[in-house]
Specification:
heterodimer, A: alpha+beta, 4-stranded antiparallel sheet, 3-stranded antiparallel sheet, 2 helices, 36% strand, elongated, disordered C terminus, B: mainly alpha, 0% strand, globular
Chain lengths: 125, 161
């Protein structure tokens, strides 16, 4: 084993440090998880709507010909149906914690959970 | 000699394209996560033939797979950014001469994800997606290691092209 480490010293250092950094970031993410209050919808990089998570809701988000059906249920937000071919957004987990985001690349739509609506305008445009 | 090299590279490019197609059928925890099988071929070319050849095959592969299996508008920018970044880091690490093939391949896998996320951020007009990088990078370490092991086997078995 020590021979292996000697022979692959640089590999162990590089991959080890990458793994350590990732572990720290993921741990910070996991411990800083707090339940959010609002779902912010962003279409084409612009905030288009805000829905409170404590009210159940079914809404159709449209962007040109594309659409995503967003459901808010028991404090969770998820995409039930989408016009895109890959359906990646439909297969994502339900989101309820701050910072969690549903992403639909073909329709350029994201849904992000935040704790308050003010001060959440960090989009590039 | 030159004609032979072109033929060999064309064949390797075809294998890489078949691999990107077959990859769709391998189940992963999330549909956006892929193993990166074509990278086995790129790693092999990098070590057995050369840097220029690896870059050429990688770019042609990305272009052709986007035309055949995806769409130029929606899948090409992501694949291209991923392929270019991953190639750059793999060449850089390989030139250091102290890293094993598996490490080179893992770094390539991670940078592939970083490239795709950067393009997503630009296209979506939001930097929020960047927070997916750490979780995806963990999967990239696993798949990059698998690709590296496969690439290593290929490099050892095929001594001369």
């Amino acid at each position: 084993m020590s021979d292996f480490i000697k022979k692959h010293k640089f590999d162990v250092i590089l991959i080890g440090s990458i793994a350590l950094i990732l572990a720290i970031i993921l741990a910070v993410f996991a411990f800083s998880k707090t339940e959010g209050a609002f779902a912010v919808v962003t279409v084409n990089g612009r905030q288009s709507a805000v829905y409170p998570l404590d009210e159940d809701l079914v809404v159709k988000l449209t962007n040109g010909d594309g659409y995503n059906i967003l459901i808010i249920e028991n404090g969770d937000a998820y995409i039930k149906e989408a016009s895109c071919p890959d359906k990646l957004c439909v297969n994502q987990h339900k989101i309820r914690y701050n910072g969690e985001t549903l992403v639909c690349l073909p329709n350029k739509t994201t849904v992000k959970v935040v704790s308050n609506v003010d001060g959440e305008t960090d989009f590039i445009s | 000699m030159k004609a032979k090299k072109i033929a060999v590279l064309g064949m390797l490019c075809a294998i890489a394209m078949v691999m990107s197609y077959l990859e769709h059928f391998i189940p992963t925890p999330h549909p956006a996560i892929k193993i990166g099988l074509p990278n086995v071929i790129i790693v092999f070319i990098l070590y057995r033939i050369g840097v220029k050849e690896a870059a050429a095959v990688s770019l042609v592969r990305v272009l052709l797979t986007s035309i055949l299996f995806g769409s130029i508008g929606s899948s090409l920018p992501y694949s291209l950014a991923g392929a270019v970044l991953s190639l750059l880091i793999m060449v850089a690490l390989k030139q250091c001469k102290v890293f094993a093939t598996i490490t080179v391949s893992i770094a390539g896998g991670i940078m592939h994800i970083v490239g795709q996320i950067i393009v997503s951020c630009i296209i979506m007009g939001t930097a929020e997606i960047a927070y997916l990088i750490p979780a995806l990078a963990v999967t990239a370490i696993i798949s990059g290691a698998l690709v590296g092991i496969a690439g290593n086997l290929l490099i050892k078995k095929v001594k001369k092209i």
